[in-house]
Amino acid sequence: MTPTVVALRAQAQDVVEAELARLHGRLPDDLGAKAREEITRAMRRVADKLLHRPTVRVKELAKAPDGGSYEAALRELFDLDPQAPGALAAPTGPTHAEPSAQEKS
């Protein structure tokens, strides 16, 4: 299960980095480094928060007798290759999003 979840997070990280590169190329030159860094952090937090609950849940569901089907569904839905080199390495940067107020209750 872990390689599939890592592959999903790596895929999300790649999308965020590509969008950040595109966005930073379109931002005004006079936008300060602090603002650019905050935009970067915000986009990464959004991706982490969107992935947090589904990845926790798929890990829980994978423990069931038919748990392999959940992993297979995740791979199919997101076109993941858990054997890809990036999927086998630990992701860089934070991968745990803070639970929302709704998740805490």
Polypeptide structure, described:
With 105 residues, the protein is mainly α. It has one domain (2-82). It is 70% helix and 0% strand. The protein is built from 5 helices and no strands. Helix 1 packs antiparallel against helix 2 (33-61). The chain is elongated, with a radius of gyration of 16 Å.
In short, what is this structure?
The protein has helices at residues 2-26, 33-61, 68-78, 85-88, 101-104. With 105 residues, the chain is an all-alpha fold.
Which key features would you list for this structure?
mainly alpha, 5 helices, 0% strand
Class by SSE composition: mainly alpha
Mean pLDDT over the residues: 81
Strand content: under 5%
**Spatial extent as radius of gyration:** 16 Å
Count of DSSP strands: 0
Helix content: 55-70%
Uncertain stretches:
87-105
Count the domains: 1
SSE pattern: HHHHH
What's the multimeric state? Answer: single chain
The backbone outline, from C-alpha atoms, is: elongated
Biggest beta-sheet profile: none
> Counting H and I runs of at least 4 residues, what is the number of helices?
5
End-to-end distance, in Å? 27 Å
